[in-house]
Structures are given as structure tokens and as C-alpha cells.
Amino acid sequence: MIWCRFQSGQKVSFGIVEGDVVTEVSGSPFDEHTVTATTHQLSQVKLLAPVIPGMLYAAGPNHRGHVEGMAARRGTPPSYPDRPSPNYRSVHAIIGSEENIVVPKDCSGAVQPEGQLAVVIGKNARKVSVDEALDYVFGYTIGNDISQRPWQQEDRTMFRSKNCDTWKPMGPWIVTGLDPAAFRIIVRHNGDVWEDFSSSEQIWSAAECTVRDLDEAHALGFRFFAKEVSVSHAYVHLVEIGIPVTVGGLTVKTGDLLHGDKHGVTSIPFGIAAQIPDMVKTIADYEKMIIDLCQSSDFSMEALKENAKITRPY
Prior knowledge:
Layout (H helix, E strand, L loop, with lengths): L1 E7 L2 E8 L2 E7 L5 E9 L4 E2 L8 E4 L4 H11 L11 E4 L4 E3 L14 E2 L2 E7 L8 H4 L3 E8 L2 E2 H6 L4 H4 L5 E3 L3 E2 L8 E6 L2 E7 L7 H5 L5 H4 L25 E3 L2 E3 L4 E5 L2 E5 L1 H4 L2 H20 L5 H11 L3
Parallel strand pairs: 8-13
Antiparallel strand pairs: 1-2, 1-5, 1-14, 2-3, 3-4, 6-7, 9-12, 10-11, 15-16, 17-18, 19-20
């Protein structure tokens, strides 16, 4: 199946592409959705980047030809990575496949394309094995990891050399049900072939580069709560400090008293905070009464109902 994201007039929708026609979908392919009866000619809509993910990362260098080509230009033997090395790309740099790439005014060095197989994750996952990884993949698209080589060599990070606005063209659509090791990727620059390679030449497969989990936060004793578990890292940037935030339906303000564990989190009003220890002891005593009754030979439904009048007076 071929999925796209498109704009018709002022409306942005997901759609399913068949030939020259796109059928509008209500909702998202990653959630509940309905295929509508509304259709458009592809030539009459604007194709957008097929997805704006919460997080985008690249597992490079991961193509043998790319590693060997870079080594040849340096005049050194190729050095292949011994493990996948994912690193971040800015989701704010993503554009559609037919949009213009803007080169900053202060960019005077070589700006080059890098064709990439883009793997689109469709489900939340955690601690997924290589054998199971592709079960969490929704589909595949094509990305272009535009890179500025002097900045890449000079800067301590790749933030500037890889993440300028418009430097991550993607699309035009997502295709499901394909073999990630059977793609031929061709990059053309003004009609000339810049790159031509097969995804079978990857050093690490899509499954080996797709999902991962980091436990450093737990090892450091860092306390946090979140709406849900997501694939790898969420994309986060600092907006403001000291303002109320709502996470998973709970609004938290500076100075709030929170209690949380692996089952969830709640906010405790300061007005009743001092009463909490006594309330906890009372609940524990009531629960012990119920457990003792259930484990005794005197257990019956009638006895449980009488017990409930004491332990659950509210």
C-alpha cells in the first residue's frame, strides 16, 4: 500500500495512492482512521513530507559504498563501523520531496546530497530484539540527508552541517510491505547521477538500526514520568521554564507535590499532605482485614459484604 500526506486547498490529510488518484483518509495511518469516499487527482494536490515524526535519527555511516568513497577521497583505507551508531536529525528540517532546499548565506563550502532509506516506525516499542524489530515498522520512504562537508569536518557536532532548515527532504510517500534489503536508491543532481546503490549493501540491516532502548535515566536515578513509552528517544526542545505543563492528562505546576511509581503518578494537594501517612496506614489495615478474611476458612460472600461495611464506609 502507498500512503501519502497531502494538501488540498487549506486542508492537510493522509491519503492512499492508487495510480494517479489519492483517496482521502480521515485520521492517521498510525492510529484509528477511516478511508473516505473523497478522491483527488495527484496532479491537483500538493504532496507534503509523508510523515513528521516525533523524532528522527540517522544510523550512519551505514553503506559500504559511502564509507569506501569517503576513504578514497581522503586517500585512506576504509574503516567500517563495528556497531550501528544512531545520531539525531532535526524534524524541523523535514520538507516534501519537491520543495526547495535553501542554502544559508554563510555556507560557502560543498553542500551535498545523501540518499537514504528511511524506515517509518508504526508502533510504540521498548527493548525489541533484532528478530522482532521489523514487526514495528510501518513502511519505508526515501530521505535525503543534505550535508555541508566543511562544517561537518570543522564543528564538534553535526548540528549545523546536517540540520539546517529544509535540509531533510523526504517522500513523496510511504510504501508498506516491502523488503528493506531490496531497494535500489538513485540520487540525481540536476539530472546527473550522484549516487546509485542498493540497500543490500548496508553494513547494518534496517532491523539492526531501527529500534533501541536506553536505561541510563534509571541508572542515574533520574525521576520522570511520561504519557507513554515510545520508540527510542522523543524529540525534545526547551521552550519555557516554570510554566504549568500537562502530561498524560495531569497538569503540574511549579511546587506541586507528586507521588509516582511504575503504576502512575498523582498530584497531592498540600492541604491534605500531612494526613497522607495516617490515611495510608488505615487503607493498609483495611486491606489486611479483607486479605485475612479471603484466606480464612470462614470466608463467604456474606462475610465479605459485612467486611466491606467496615473497610469501605464511603
